[in-house]
Amino acid sequence: MEYIMLDRESLNITLFVNFKRHQKVTKCWRKIDGKWCIKEIAFTDEWTEKEYEQLIGYLKNTIVTGGMVLGAFYNKELKGFASVEPSLFGKNKEYLDLSSIHVSEDMRGKGIGKDLFLQAKIWAKEHGAKKLYISSHSAVETQAFYREMGCVEAEEYNQEHVDQEPFDCQLECLV
Known about the structure:
Number of strands: 9
Number of domains: 1
Organism: Clostridium yunnanense
CATH topology: Aminopeptidase
Radius of gyration: 16 Å
Protein name: GNAT family N-acetyltransferase
InterPro entries: Acyl_CoA_acyltransferase, GNAT_dom
Domain N-acetyltransferase: 1-175
């Protein structure tokens, strides 16, 4: 696996031609009456071409504004990526936002997500963060990954994330 910092010019739809964003979800975490519980919620997440185009726009903006986008390549094909936004936030300006981390379905379970997460933590620390903030998909498998990475429920919620994705789990991780 080769990890490469991506630049604005390298981000285009052909970069994602061999990337498979597919996740079959059967159970999700939900906070009900202040307590976390697992609910039977079934759906499939699969990005459309329009969603890839939107993603590319977001990632380009991350780079232009001084953030980080890291790609994981296997045989010169993108198989994973992570992005961290550049602006510190929170009442103590201690958080940086891990705005995305995804591994292609065909390469999950090989440590790529862990490597990307650890590199994101290093970058965040080098850029003044004390904590990485994650507004995470609530799927049981996704939450298991983040718990394995040392994430806990965020002490301070980012309201913009909550408003955009009300079913996401708001997490943090010390860097």
